[in-house]
Amino acid sequence: MKRNILSLLGPYAILLKILLTGLVVLSLSRWALVAWQWDRVSEAISLWDMFVQGIRADLIIMGMLIAPLALVMPILVNKIGWPLWQKLVWLWGIVIVVLLVFMESATPAFIMQYDLRPNRLFVEYLNYPKEVFSTLWEGFRIPLILGVSLTIFAGWLANKVLRRWQANEQLNWPFWKVWLAWPLLVLLLVVMIRSTFGHRPANPAMFAITSDAMVNSLVINSSWSVYFAIYNMQHEAEASEVYGTMTDDAIMKEMDENYPWLNSNPDAPFPTLNKRPAPVERDKPLNLVIILEESLGATFVDSLGGEYAVTPELEKLKKQGWWFEQLYATGTRSVRGIEATISGFLPTPARSVVKLSLSQQNFFTIADLLSQKGYQTEFIYGGESHFDNMANFFIGNGFQSVIDQDDYENPVFEGSWGVSDEDLFNKAHERIQQAEQSEEPYFGLVFTSSNHSPYEFPDGRIDLHVPEKQTDLNAVKYADYALGQFFKKARQSDYWDNTLFLVIADHDLNVYGDALVPIERFQIPGLIMGADIQPKRIKTVASQIDMAPTLLSLMGISAETPMIGRDLSRPEEQQSQGRALMQFADYFALLQGEKVTVLRPQKEALAGHYSPEVRQLEITGPADDEDAHEALAHVLLPSWLYREQRYDMPLGHPLHKKQTETPALE
Fold this sequence. Notes:
The radius of gyration is 28 Å and the shape is globular. It is built from 22 helices and 20 strands. Strand 5 (376-381), helix 16 and strand 6 form a beta-alpha-beta unit. 45% of the residues lie in helices and 14% in strands. The longest helix has 33 residues, at 82-114. By secondary structure, it is α/β, with parallel strands linked by helices. Residues 656-666 have low confidence and may be disordered. The protein has an eight-stranded mixed sheet with strand order 6-5-9-2-10-12-3-13, with helices on both faces. The protein folds into two domains: 2-234, no CATH class; 273-574, 3-Layer(aba) Sandwich (Alkaline Phosphatase, subunit A).
């Protein structure tokens, strides 16, 4: 019976076989992942919905993969082209199977790291093979070997099966019959790929049917997830519009209501430009050193409600300065933390501006501002500064020098991601001292890397928290140790009284959870100390974008900048409920006190409640129009400013120069 059905399809039968093979591979993988994550899946979705929607998503990617064969089929399926057609089917069939198996075999390790199926990060990291391979080999060696072995086996098996299928295949259809059936195949593929009769074709957001982002990602497949991420990377300038649209005037009106110091004109060259006088007066502005700690989230800090207490040095230091009790990162990547902390830029669904093309020059950073005020500005890193395009972004936007792995002589320790945090802080201490001796004002961004998989650090520095050395808990404890050693030296140095320090994490490690946006995993430690800073607890909800305006005020610098962040040196801001902005995968969350508004692509916004004591987002239903409008303005603003290159200071910016030039008299 089966043979009779297939014989009715003639040369089209091979496409059906490839389609069914792909569906079997993807379904088996999905069910294996569901069994692995059963606790979360069973609470969030029925198996029937998982199965039906999963097949629908799999038909989309299979339609896309089969389409190239279908397009050339009427040209090659004839007596002349038949040998070439068979070779093409054999080769492309193997490619399809190998691709599907490779992506699915890579999925478990990716979920363990990011709590989602492979997405845009999977593609971005391909630009850094040395660092990525070192991380995989040291931290995910067994999954790597199993995945490669499974992919090779799948390719071998696909080769044997396809050759067997083709051995029995004959051209038994006339030319006209192939052409007559071809439009039906094309129509079927269009229906499969669109997967909807709506105005827009299906996208991964349509399969977000639970309140758990990881479970939503299991519904689809990894090949389509990565493909769609690549597609979106080509349209990043308008990425935020997946949540909805607003006019420029409406965006700025919303900003003016939320940030009364703006009073901005959307038609001005720099719509968010604002001047805020520093409430702290100083005869000489302070130096500034920002220490950006890799992946040191609140998870590891006991006093912030973390699960682990592996930061004893930070617990001591917090008593010596301003300690932020409700500080949140804007995203889950280092470059997102950089853009927020250094530029005060709001997060979007697109990649960080550190990596985007239109922000490589004439984009505001506090380094640019301070360099115009006579500061020596530099970025100090222990690894290779080309990673994530950091060096290019920094040099193009106000950093006068970049120090990276090649600038360390005889480091104490060198691992996959560069020299140890000890070496990094020794270099930072040396550079700050040199600036102090030259009496030149100084700004340094110091970015650590020891707390990065595969978690390599020197022996004999700490009592291991867990027996296995190369783990995140031990790496965090070592990073904390190195930070404590640095501040012991800094407090005894000549530059201490003239320097303001910010210690802040870029993001937490392994941002995951069964909530649509795991807000508790966005919480990070933040500490301002040095100079004449007195101990204080800052209880208001705060964001990384608030740090730069606050630091400038404490340094004694009044400045005109495009930053909308809150100046937390002002008592009225410390006493307010505060707000934080978070981008997690395709979701954007606006936290205001304990009220949360979550934006979803092409779906209605949701309202929620988040208590720092409970540390769990509770979705309460659809968001009201006012809250949804407010959140939408926050996510559309940065996309608009980036797209039109209007996030900078007037001085030296081509846009300002063009608009202020006086035409020459004839």
